[in-house]
Amino acid sequence: MKPKIQETGFGYVVVGEKRIKHDVVIRLNGSVEKRKKELSKAVYGTSHIISLEEAKHVFQDGAELLLVGTGQSGLAELSPEAAAYFQKKKCTVELLPTPQAIERWNEAKGAVIALLHITC
């Protein structure tokens, strides 16, 4: 079951009843995991560019939509390789500032996953 995201602000997101103080990935089954941003930092020196390796970690077979919360000010982005990977997997990606991404998440239907950057 998809958890409702209550709110976000700089440095936190509230998923269900839980206030989380790190970036998260939300899976098809509704489970919430800490984002493995070190996969992107190893390639780009920053977690603001999502690498191919991180994209492979985030993707799940059957996912039709990935919502990327790009941060409070919208600074995160997909690398060209990550964008091509999701296209090859036939998974639509929507990049939105995190406050708008959580609104979209709460109304989205179907096989949706999310990666939420909670700062910047």
Characterise this structure.
This protein is α/β, with parallel strands linked by helices. It has one domain (5-117): 3-Layer(aba) Sandwich (Hypothetical Protein Mth938, Chain: A). The protein is 28% helix and 32% strand. It contains 4 helices and 10 strands; from the N terminus they run E-E-E-E-E-H-E-H-E-E-H-E-H-E. It has helices at residues 38-44, 52-58, 80-88, 98-107; strands at 5-9, 12-15, 18-20, 24-26, 32-34, 49-50, 65-70, 77-78, 92-96, 112-117. The chain has a 5-stranded mixed sheet with strand order 5-4-10-7-9, sandwiched between helices. Strands 1-2-3 form a 3-stranded antiparallel sheet, with helices on one face. It has a two-stranded parallel ribbon with strand order 6-8. Helix 2 runs parallel beside helix 3.
In short:
The chain is α/β, with parallel strands linked by helices and 120 residues long. The chain has helices at residues 38-44, 52-58, 80-88, 98-107, and strands spanning 5-9, 12-15, 18-20, 24-26, 32-34, 49-50, 65-70, 77-78, 92-96, 112-117.
